[in-house]
């Protein structure tokens, strides 16, 4: 078989497997076999670029990152629907429809809580996708939509132009997995699947969107220059025959039956892979729709039934505190079982102490419970007249309920955190951070491997990583002898890291990479840093009172002392390899802009910091000097406007002692400015 025929066969088979897996939810081959075929096609297309086609599965991985999204004027506006909130309002909608329509049949479907998009096909090939925007103008997110595997890149049986509308969503299971991953990485969590889907679809880098696992379900044909359909249901069935993933629907002629379907959708929302925020009721006959027309805002032939938050009484039986992977203590109310939005609720989030205090929630209270956004159970309010005698206000514990370490409250929020360096509840998060690139940089020890090690009971502290044996690692899922050997080599290599990487790896609050480098270079050893007084710490630029207190408290903790001792025993270096920080440029603040030929801006910053300077990212009146390389832009212009001294690359190299020249003259030119700033 020649290369062209082989590529065509691989594309057809892979697209068929994509359809089976992502649309029908019925895979017919293993992931391993699919990946093998995809790799074969990738290698074939790499060797013969002329064989690449728009519908190739290889084109779904994400193209080049964009600078911005282009605007798209929708050929047919993507309208919104009028909301109704009660059976009475729905019946009024039905009455208005029947006044104008001769044949009344309704299509009832769940209203997906996602992001509305339009997909455009020309002669069966997907050419463009855009967000709804304001309904008239949206954003071109074609490259990100290509990463959604349930969207066919090519369809058969729809010549000409076809524009369909659907809702992009993040499956609930994917959302839970993504937030778990973000928590391990110390990133902010997404509030709900809709926000996660919207943020993912609007990533400028399609590779990020591809990794988010988005999906889509279609619910309308916006435009087709082929034969017209008589009913909406017929058009949806046709889309399904083209192998699109299409919304489920029911057909009803009686408004009472419509109401029953709406209740059924609401009660069964747990069976859907997506979140719903209501049900959609649309007239099925398309000619009748045209007769009814639309208002300035909404079509007259459709309505969106929004479920009111279902509220019920329950009793707070207990308040328990959970410790998250980042050490945050979160209180949870254990409530008497109550049925809400299709599920039985036995607990409700209490967020933090401020939330509890504001609502005065106590153990024994009768409370009103609802599901926030139909997802998270929460307490709306206390029923004070039903409060039993003897209840007392609730107070969060002063020590971690998991490890017993003291807890502290964030200076900038309401969160209370455990300070334990070896708290079991934080183990996954701490180990993931410890091994990350900016910390100990242990290649091959990502979140998945960390979780496997913890689940197997092989690692309980960072020090245990250095006690691992080849057979233990090789026995883990998706690992083998070679992977085990590579990981052990990476662990051994990390032992000789500079102290700054270890200090950052400890995860001490407000001690980031920059502070860790400054502290390591200043004190030289971890023991010396641990003995430093608050006065010594705050005497260092960028180390304030809060950071100094965090350091002192961390080193004083028995758990921290135990961890340090364990790391010493396994041979982890606790010495700085950096050159001692000088004071030649102490008190001066530099900004770097443009491209330097002798070194990168990062390296230039390190040279300045080694001489005691501070490096900033923005120019202000407090800036001592700007170092300008080739193609310097707005920072150089601002420096000139403010009268800030500017050095070219040659003068910079002289200043840091790497090129002959009058260094004293340069210093003299910078120091008087510092004196003027002090007087000001």
Distance between the termini: 81 Å
CATH architecture of the largest domain: 2-Layer Sandwich
Number of domains: 5
The count of helical stretches stands at 26
Name the overall outline: globular
- Major sheet attributes: 5 strands, mixed
CATH topology of the largest domain: D-amino Acid Aminotransferase, Chain A, domain 1
Poorly predicted segments: none
Please give the order of strands in the largest beta sheet: 2-11-10-3-9
For the record, the CATH class of the largest domain is Alpha Beta
In CATH terms, the superfamily of the largest domain is: DNA ligase/mRNA capping enzyme
Which percent band covers the strand fraction? 15-25%
Radius of gyration based on Cα positions: 31 Å
At a glance:
With 680 residues, the chain is of the alpha+beta class.
What does this structure look like?
The chain has 26 helices and 22 strands. With 680 residues, it is of the alpha+beta class. The chain has five domains: 58 residues, Helix hairpin bin (Helix Hairpins, Orthogonal Bundle); 223 residues, 2-Layer Sandwich (D-amino Acid Aminotransferase, Chain A, domain 1); 75 residues, OB fold (Dihydrolipoamide Acetyltransferase, E2P) (Beta Barrel); 161 residues, 5' to 3' exonuclease, C-terminal subdomain (DNA polymerase, domain 1, Orthogonal Bundle), CATH 1.10.150; 91 residues, Rossmann fold, CATH 3.40.50.10190. It has a five-stranded mixed β-sheet with strand order 2-11-10-3-9. β19, α23 and β20 form a beta-alpha-beta unit. α1 runs antiparallel to α2, α12 packs across α13 and α17 packs across α18. It is globular and about 90 Å long. The termini are far apart. 34% of the residues are buried. The model has no long low-confidence stretch (mean pLDDT 88).
